[in-house]
Design brief:
Elements lengths: L2 E6 L4 H10 L5 E8 L7 H4 L11 E3 L2 H4 L4 E4 L5 H6 L7 E4 L9 H7 L9 E2 L16 H4 L4 E3 L3 H16 L7 E7 L14 H4 L4 E2 L8 H11 L8 E7 L6 E8 L6 H12 L5 E3 L17 E8 L4 E8 L3 H16 L15
Parallel strand pairs: 1-2, 1-4, 2-3, 4-5, 5-7, 6-7, 8-10, 12-13
Antiparallel strand pairs: 8-11, 9-10, 11-14, 13-14
Helix pairs in contact: 1-11, 7-9, 7-10
The structure holds NADPH dihydro-nicotinamide-adenine-dinucleotide phosphate (NDP) and N-acetyl-L-glutamyl 5-phosphate.
Amino acid sequence: MTYSVAVAGASGYAGGELLRLLAGHPEFEIRTVTGHSSAGRPLIESQPHLRSLAELTLQPTEPEVLDGHDIVFFALPHGASGALTAQLRDVRLAVDCGADHRLESATDWAAFYGGEHHEPWAYGVPELPVAGEGSLAKQRDRLVGAARIAAPGCNASTVSLSLAPGIAAGVIEPRDIVSVLAVGPSGAGKAAKTHLLGAELMGTANPYAVGGTHRHIPEIRQALRAAGASEEPSLSFTPVLVPMSRGILATSTARLAAGASAGEVRAAWEAAYSDEPFVHLLPEGVFPRTADALGANTCLMGLAIDEAAGRVVVVAALDNLAKGTAGAAIQSANIALGIPETTGLPMNGVAP
Ligand SMILES: NC(=O)C1=CN([C@@H]2O[C@H](COP(=O)(O)OP(=O)(O)OC[C@H]3O[C@@H](n4cnc5c(N)ncnc54)[C@H](OP(=O)(O)O)[C@@H]3O)[C@@H](O)[C@H]2O)C=CC1
Ligand SMILES: CC(=O)N[C@@H](CCC(=O)OP(=O)(O)O)C(=O)O
C-alpha cells in the first residue's frame, strides 16, 4: 500500500531529515511540502542535498494544504503545530516533531514552555520500557494503531533510553541522576544559525540551559516515571554545544540501588534492548562515539559501573536529526500503520 505524505516545515533541519529518509521509504509517497517564510519557493533552494525531490515547491503551512493526506509530519517551531493540528479533519496519522504534544503535565508545560498546553499524544520512543503492562512492556505497544504521535526531544530520548531499563528493573535510583551532554548545533534548528556562526562555535564548547532550566527535563522525568520509577525522578541536566553539526553524546550517571549486583545491572539493559533493531548496548568496555550513529536511526550505548562512586554510568550516542527526531517519527509511524518497523530506516552510521 502507498500512503500519501505531507511534511510541514520542510525547509528546516528536521523537515529536511524527514524528507531524506521518507524519499527512501517504499510505502510512503511525498506529495506535499510546506514552509513559512520560504513558501512559494522551490524546495531545492533550502534543501540542496535532496536531489530526488528537486521538482517539489514549498506550499504555505495551512490546514487546507495538509488535510487529505494519509500522513502529515510536522517539523515546526514549538507552539506552531498545536493550533494547526487541531484543525485537521481528514488525516489518518499526524506526527509532530515539536514539543506541543509531548508533555502530560500542564504544570510542567507552563513552567518550561508557556502558552497553551495541548493534549498529549502517544510518545514516539518505541523502545522505552513502560511499567504496569507485563514484564518488559514497551512504549511501542501504545503506538500500535495510533492516529496522533509526538516525536521526542532529541536530548530527552537519548537520556530516557539511557536510564529507563535500570529504572524499570529497580537497579538504579530515580533520584540524583546526573546527565551531561555534548550536542551538535543542528539541534537548535536553522532559525538559530545567526547565533551559531563559526566565530561563536568553532574550536570551543558552550554550555547552555545550565541549572535545571532545559525544556527536556520534564520530558525525561515523564519517561522515567512511565518506566516505573519508585519515587519522583530528579535529574541534573547540562547540555554543552560542541563543534560538530549533528550528534549527541550523553553521559548519565545514577546511584546503584541497594543490593543490586553488577550482573543484574548489565542484565537489565541487555533484557531491554537485545531484541531492538535500533537501540544497542555495546559490549562491556566499549563506548560509542557520535560518528557511529551519524545518519542512522540508531542509539548506541555503553555501560559501566563506577564501584567507588556507587554509580552506574551510561554513555549514549545518537544523531539528533535521525534517531533523535525524523527517524523516530518514521519508526513510530511504521508501527502505528502496521508496516514493518524498520522499513525505510538506516541502521548503520557513517563513521569515521
Ligand atoms: N533540530 C533537531 O535536532 C530537532 C528538532 N526538533 C523539533 O522539530 C521542530 C523543527 O525544528 P528544526 O527543523 O530544527 O527548526 P528549523 O528552524 O530548522 O525549521 C523550522 C521550520 O518551521 C517553519 N516555520 C518557522 N516559523 C513558523 C511558523 N510561525 N509557522 C509555521 N512554520 C514555521 C520554517 O519555515 P521557513 O524556513 O520557510 O521560514 C521551517 O520549515 C521543532 O519543534 C524542533 O524543536 C525535535 C528534535 C530535534
Ligand atoms: C543544540 C540545541 O539547542 N538543541 C536543542 C534540541 C532541541 C530538540 O530536541 O528539539 P525540541 O526543541 O523539539 O525539544 C535544545 O537543546 O533545546
